[in-house]
Specification:
By secondary structure, the protein is α+β, with helices and mostly antiparallel strands. It has six helices and eight strands. The chain has helices at 31-39, 104-114, 126-131, 174-187, 192-202, 209-217; strands spanning 19-24, 62-68, 70-74, 84-88, 94-103, 133-135, 143-150, 153-159. It has a six-stranded mixed sheet. A two-stranded antiparallel sheet has the order 3-4. Strand 6 (133-135) and strand 7 (143-150) form a beta hairpin. Helix 4 packs across helix 5 (192-202) and helix 5 (192-202) crosses helix 6 (209-217). It starts with 18 loop residues before the first strand and ends with a helix. The mean pLDDT is 93.
């Protein structure tokens, strides 16, 4: 198994980086799923067609990382049904993630598609990189978080502005959990027992680790 990469402390001094590590903790932990956001198209079984990024190059590296904070599920995904994955960086815990090395423009375009905006406009990352947090709006996935850096390149992710304790949990669907589990296992740092227990904990008792494990073989 490959080891998770240790995250260095922020803030990041270069406020206009050409590359960033996009930290995915949801469906984009899976490289095939991420490719839809980059290349455009529709994921097998999906209901949404993605326009893709201006820069169509796939990540030059993808490494497993653990972010400070917790995973939780809230709101309802029109793509997967059931709850969406969110990251609460202010609650003690760990969030299993996969950091993809992409260009800053790709990160902006991936974020735009997650926010149901049209890609094509670069983001001003200065506030997120210098303060660790920036708000692009009050909706889901409109809060940028910079948990630190890796090999001198900043890590960035996006989540909701609320904390896990402030929103009603929503039960994630079986296809969504299966996809998240597959993406985390693909990263190679965690075994199936660890991944299934982690996702079950994030689902707030609505799924057991055994039930998540059964999705992998069902």
């Amino acid at each position: 198994m490959s080891a998770t990469r240790a995250i260095g402390p922020g803030p990041h001094l270069d406020l206009t980086p050409s590359q960033v590590w996009y930290c995915s903790y949801g469906s984009n932990t899976h490289l095939d799923r991420l490719a839809q956001y980059i290349l455009g198209g529709r994921h097998s079984g999906g209901t949404r067609t993605y326009p893709g990024c201006r820069d169509r190059a796939l990540p030059s590296a993808s490494v497993p990382v653990e972010l400070p904070g917790v995973l939780y599920f809230a709101t309802t995904s029109p793509v997967w049904g059931g709850g969406r994955a969110f990251h609460d960086p202010d609650t003690a815990g760990r969030t299993l993630a996969r950091a993809h090395l992409v260009s800053a423009s790709q990160f902006a375009d991936i974020a735009a598609q997650e926010m149901y905006r049209q890609p094509g406009t670069d983001l001003d990352l200065a506030e997120a990189l210098s303060r660790g947090r920036a708000s692009l709006g009050d909706g889901r996935y409109e809060t940028l978080v910079c948990p630190g850096q890796l090999d001198g390149v900043p890590l960035l992710t996006f989540t909701a502005p609320w904390r896990a304790a402030d929103v009603a949990p929503t039960v994630p669907s079986a296809p969504y959990l299966r996809h998240l589990a597959a993406g985390l296992l693909e990263a190679g740092a965690w075994d199936a027992d660890a991944v299934c227990a982690y996702l079950a904990a994030g689902a707030a008792g609505h799924w057991s680790a055994a039930a998540v494990r059964a999705l992998l073989t069902g």
